[in-house]
Amino acid sequence: MISRIDLRGDALPEGPALRDLLPRAEFDVQAALEKVRPICEDVHHRGDAALIEYAERFDGVRLDQVRVPAAALTRALQELDPAVRAALEESIRRARIVHREQRRSPHTTQVVPGGTVTEKWVPVERVGLYAPGGRSVYPSSVIMNVVPAQEAGVESIALASPAQADFGGLPHPTILAACALLGVDEVYAAGGATAVAMFAHGTQSCPPANMVTGPGNIWVAAAKRYFTGKIGIDAEAGPTEIAVLADDTADPVHVASDLISQAEHDPLAAAVLVTDSVELADAVEKELEPQVAATRHVDDRIVPALSGKQSAIVLVDGMDEGLKVVDAYGAEHLEIQTADAAALADRVKNAGAIFIGPWAPVSLGDYAAGSNHVLPTGGCACHSSGLSVQSFLRGIHIVDYTKDALAEIAHHVVTLAEAEDLPAHGAAIKARFDWKVPQGK
To answer: Is the pTM above the cut of 0.70?
Structure first.
């Protein structure tokens, strides 16, 4: 059901050479970009009419309007299963605890007497958030996008999720209920690239946003790439992935269940076990069969994901080599199930989120750890972070110098301006003085 890659015996290569040996899903955003380009431009020119047409083409439903009526949000919350509501409320509470601590305060640095630089943090004015539809419903993604935006102080928050034929053209009612719990009343029935285009260009019913965040399929990722430079984005999210770094102390039942939990997302989902224990590898492989047979989404998601080229058991000589492998892989989710899990976690350089030990599975992080589950995929953890309050803030430097402080540094500014052949820069300094400037200290 799952392949093996044996990296034992020889010294591991470095950098790209090691990455090329590891499993990864094929995810060609550039090819998808050419297909979403005309859709995005159509939304630009025709607005809501284009959104309604694409909802009928892609989602099989004819909309009367794109914006979800307030009454539908209220009704969805009223009809929400009490147990689901309680779980969502606790997830929101824990996410707020973590994200509230991420707020940043202004900081002033005195560079010289009379010269200061203050960095203040200003939230993005308006954001468009995306909650996927399709194979599953993701109210958890609503929470993971909305909470950090709210804690950052974003004043205008809109959310889009695909229209559902089963619910009269509205997004899934659990999505709507989560929005109502969070106080988000601007919700649109729009999916995929059309939702990103709606937020980027604006339409008759939806004002344009400064930024778009949220996970989605390849069409969402392609639309984000298309609009990069016009709007801010969080990341081009690819198929979800889990890597488990484990030794012979790990429980194969736990490891197998965690690999399956990610595989049930999508046939392109990646499940990777990195271990120095052949015995554990054998036990996990044996354990996968009964666990897969006992769950749902077997033939359309789990088996294709586990048997695909993006999933594998990777054998290494030891945990030092295992760390090199998981750093080269840069997993969206990295579980460490070893005898010294916390110490190993401290040495990891590249991961979207790290889950330590047997009692912190990825599923916990998906819903109720308090952490954010919108994380970098496809190895992008080597340069990008998950969604946070910081994602919605902009740092602005405020420069405040007195005349004496400027006079002290003026000759250096003029010298550098002339070295760069930008004499007007130097003239802007000279104009403030008789050019009897002290030569500095």
So the answer is: yes
Strands 126-130, 3-6: pairing kind: unpaired
Q: Is 231 helix (H, G, I), strand (E, B) or coil?
A: strand
Work out the angle between the directed axes of helices 403-419 and 423-430 (0-180°, nearest 10). 160
Chain CA centroid to CA 62, Å: 31
Question: Which residues partner with 394 through β-bridges?
Answer: 122
| β-bridge partners, 244 | 273, 335
Burial 355-375, CB ≥16 within 10 A → b, else e = bbebebbbeebbbbbbbbbbb
Which residues participate in catalysis according to the annotation?
332-333
- Tokens 């760069």 locate to 420
C-alpha torsion 134→136→139→144, nearest 10? -80
Per-residue pLDDT tens over the stretch 102-145: 999 999 999 999 999 999 999 999 999 999 987 778 999 999 99
Strand partners, 160: 130, 188
Distance in angstroms (rounded) separating the CA atoms of residues 129 and 273: 32
Question: How far is CA 228 from each of CA 148, 206, 217, 224, 273, rounded to the nearest angstrom?
Answer: 21, 19, 17, 6, 34
What gap in Å lies between CA 361 and CA 257, rounded to an integer? Answer: 10
3-state secondary structure of 232: strand
Q: How many Cβ atoms are within 10 Å of 46's Cβ, its own excluded?
A: 14
